[in-house]
Amino acid sequence: MHKTETIKEKMKLLLVVMWPILVTQLGLYMMNFIDTTMSGRAGANDLAGVAIGSSLWVPVLTGISGILMALTPIISQKIGSQNKDDVGFYVLQGLYLAIVISIAVTVIGYFVLDPILAIMSLDPDVAYIAKHYLIGLAIGIVPLFMYNVLRGFMDSLGQTRVTMIITLFALPVNFLFNYLLIFGNFGFPQLGGIGAGYASAITYWFIFYGYCIFLQLR
Questions:
Q1: pLDDT value, residue 9
Q2: Which of 132, 172, 153 is nearest to 73 (CA)?
Q3: Which of these, 11, 20, 145, lies nearest to 71 by C-alpha position?
Q4: Radius of gyration of the chain, Cα coordinates, nearest whole angstrom
């Protein structure tokens, strides 16, 4: 981060740091939009199932991400106070927390997903697609939440463009695997809306490994 003195310099730095965060957030939610839109071409039930699955998943994603992103101000404070030796400890603890939360979300989802869908009185086909869309997506929960920890670390350094670039590269990956798994192209199984969940999970793994590769090269 650059040291700023005047209000103008502070505002300029704020904008430089802020706009990649905005683009990143839009990119992450764009994945759900891609899932829903492409599933709609597979059929009405697929569209409804993925839309319902996404509506259940997005609040969980937003809430848990908010918890993990608390790491950003903690690390920023450590760096600002010249306690850089503590940074690695907090990042490691954040990764442990991400794994624990991921397991907790998966276990809770296992017990509450069927009752929630039952309460909604859905068509059996729609409920089946919504459930298995979320099951497919669950494969990517661990790397997604671990990515949020690594993102918090990089954001605390003011390098918000890194996350933006990785997220933008992930969008074509999400589109590609939706194309392959929803419609069964090039020998892949035709899963309909359920395939969108697996495509998102693959994309989450891509984002996480993208971050790991960047940190190794840095």
A1: 64
A2: 153
A3: 145
A4: 19
